[in-house]
Structures are given as structure tokens and as C-alpha cells.
Amino acid sequence: MGGDVPLGVVPGGGTNVVARTLGISEDVGTAVRQLGASLLRTPRRLGLGRARYDHGDTLFGFCAGMGFDAASVALVQRRRRWKRLLGDVLYAASAIQAFAATDRRQPAIEVMPPEGLPVGPVYHVMVSNSSPYTFVGPRRMVVAPEAAFDRPLAVTAFGAMSLVFTLRMLGSTLGSGAALSADGRVTMLHDLDHVDAVATHPVHLQADGDARGLVQRVQFRYLPEVLPVLV
What we know:
Layout: H1 17-21, H2 28-38, E1 44-53, E2 56-60, E3 63-66, H3 68-78, H4 83-86, H5 88-101, E4 109-112, E5 119-122, E6 124-128, E7 134-136, E8 139-141, E9 153-158, H6 163-174, H7 178-182, E10 186-192, E11 194-207, E12 210-229
Helix pairs in contact: 3-5
């Protein structure tokens, strides 16, 4: 980050969100040929997100989350030896378990944008540096359509967490997104250079699909054009 030596990507993970968002093939042979061709072009400089929290800080390329989605990621990480075998099934099972374990009586997180009134309390928050949030097989899951590597951060905050609401929002992220953007219990903000989130008790944090432990206060910042990438 911050240097002139560009990053070249050959995808080797399970979902490869950043690579796929940049148009890099999941096929290794094709990705290597793309990488060779990209050496003749000027690298693209991506913006990154930074999350500073109670016991550390981390960068993220596509998304960070507090609450429900981060609790799901923590469960997946505990079972990482099964990720290759089960793939999306493991994520779905972990999400169901995290949903069942979440206290749905009282939302715990308040979001404080740089301007305007605080948002919340809400049950979970996603801070996006690009779109989509992830992929389910070949399908894109979109929670922040305004997010992009060359734009400041976007926030999607969920103020409800009933089963019906959650399933409806999940369906919307995999479809047109109309229900997500139209529901008054979902707050969507974009182009934020910084945004803070505070919880009434420790909640899970994830960054780019890696669990970062329990936190109560997180400062999210956008770092423009800091990572040169060959695309």
C-alpha cells in the first residue's frame, strides 16, 4: 500500500471477491494470461478501507461488517478446514446458526456518519469499499450498489432482524435490490470518507471475510488510490 510496485493477482481462494470484481478470471491459466497482458498497461490504483478498533486495525478491499454477518464469518473461520469441501453450504449453515444466536430483542449498534444524525440503533452494519458484497456461486450479492474502488465508503445498516425481514432482504441482494433500497428499516449511505460505529456491548467484526474478534467501537476510513493493481 502506498508504493509504486503493483500487485498482480492470481485467484486461489474460495470466492475471490476482489479479483472477480476487477474482472480477473477464476481460472488460473486465464488469470495468468490476463496478468501478462496487464503488464503492458498502467496499473489501476485502488482505494482501500481501514477499520480501527479496540485492539488493532486492519485494511479491507471489498467489505467490513459488524454484527450478524461478522458473527457468521467467525463461525466459518472456526470451521475453515471444511471450507474447500462445503463451500457456500458452510456459509449458509453458519449464517443460520449466527441468526439463531443473535439477540433480536434489542439492536446494539449505532452508526455515526460525518454529517447528519446518527443512524440506529441497528442490528448489523456493512461498510463497503466495492460492489458486490460477495458471490453465491456465479450470482452477485449486492448490498451497496453505489460502492466502488474509486469512490469513498458506502454503508448499509439493518434496523430489523426478523426471519421474514432477513429472508426478504437476502432475496433482494441476490436480485434487483429493489426491496433492500425501498425498506425504511434499511439505511443506505454512500461516498463517506469516514464513519464510526459504536455498540452497546461487544459484537463481531469482519474485514474481507476474516474474523477480527469482538469490538465495541470501530472507526472506518477511506484511503484513496493507495494500492496499485495490475488489471
